[in-house]
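seq:
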Amino acid sequence: MNGLWDFDQTLFKDINVGWHSPFLDPIFFLFTCTGVSWILILICLALFPWKAFLAPKKGSFGQRIRNNPDKTIPLSVSAIIGLATSGLIDDLIKYAVPRERPSNLSWSIPEEKIYAHSFASGHTATAFGAAFMIFFLTRGSRKSPLGWAALVWATGVGVSRMYLGVHWPTDVLSGFLTALMCTSALMLVLPSYFRQKHLATERAPQKTVPLS
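struct:
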């Protein structure tokens, strides 16, 4: 346990104190804001194709989701489901495991006035909850770069919690693992039409040139 405690303190100090600068402050503050659950839900709703979904004579709710041409409806819905589930499980862990935040340390530079319920990081869990769902659903499709971009963004959210001085590295790692387990379970029950088409089915048929 001493080794894990040393790891937590060393990495936290490297990021919270070692990286601190006026240039990075607004960048990591923005990352943290996008990891707040209700802000993330608003972002997903803003990206939802409301005009196409609410168009008349488009069928039932399920049919509109299944028939959405570019699958943006399933991606938006699944991202919200992923972040909500991960955030709920994270909250249960947080209140079952009382842990003080590193903001209590005399040498830390906390940007938020919160000092308790550190384990695990809720921002990290919700961010990766949305990111993993997008990553899993776009894997192998032409939208796979979107999934990788979502994971990079979620990583930025996790790092921001250490940079802002309110979470230990193991809090962030636990939020990551919570989201991974929740989204993996969701993928087992999510309807198949939520998944993006595989690249092989998206390629245009090749024209054959007759032999002369």
